[in-house]
Specification:
- With 166 residues, the chain is α+β, with helices and mostly antiparallel strands.
- The protein has 2 domains: 93 residues, Isoleucyl-tRNA Synthetase, Domain 1; 62 residues, Ubiquitin-like (UB roll).
- It is built from 7 helices and 4 strands; from the N terminus they run H-H-H-H-H-E-E-H-H-E-E.
- Helix 1 packs parallel to helix 3, helix 2 packs antiparallel against helix 3 and helix 3 runs antiparallel to helix 4.
- The chain is elongated.
Length: 166
């Protein structure tokens, strides 16, 4: 373990996990919280193999989030990290919304009710940007062909639906 801060990708994954685990614990959805912790643990294991150790800024929050599910092991890990006091009185990690927010989203594009491809756009993109990204996608011309687009329905952050007429 080292004291360097986690890289941007790791920090974003950590804060997305904190967001989901906090929400799922509050709603008593323990299985999904554990699944997200397993995803973060997998990322941490890969990071430890390539970087030669985990950043303390990732290891400590991970142990704190594991504690409600595996308290004895979490307590051992906490003391191994050099903490003299029990983690039972430590709060769950705090969420940084700016890091938890998605930067880009993949929107499914349906043409006549069937999903044909996906477009990647910024999470804050408006309808005009999404429409432009959809029209410029290489699969767009292939699937619309000679048909006339009669309706273009865009729900930002969710889906693009194209209705054509032959």
């Amino acid at each position: 373990m080292h004291d360097q801060p986690p890289d941007d990708q790791t920090a974003r994954l950590l804060h997305r996990t904190v967001k989901v685990v906090r929400r799922d614990l509050q709603n008593m959805r323990f299985n999904t919280a554990i699944a997200r912790l397993m995803e973060l643990n997998t990322h941490a294991a890969k990071l430890a193999m390539t970087a030669g150790g985990l950043p303390r800024g990732l290891a400590e929050p991970l142990v704190l989030m594991v504690a409600p599910f595996a308290p004895h092991i979490a307590e051992e890990l906490w003391s191994t990290m050099g903490h003299a006091a029990s983690l039972a009185y430590e709060p769950l990690p705090q969420l940084d919304e700016s890091l938890a927010a998605e930067q880009v989203v993949m929107l499914p594009v349906q043409i006549d009710g069937k999903t044909r491809f996906r477009v990647e756009v910024p999470a804050s993109a408006g309808k005009e940007v999404i429409a432009e990204a959809t029209a410029s996608h290489p699969e767009y011309a292939r699937h619309t062909g000679d048909a006339t687009v009669s309706r273009l329905i865009i729900v930002p952050g969710r889906i693009v639906n194209i209705v054509t007429q032959p």
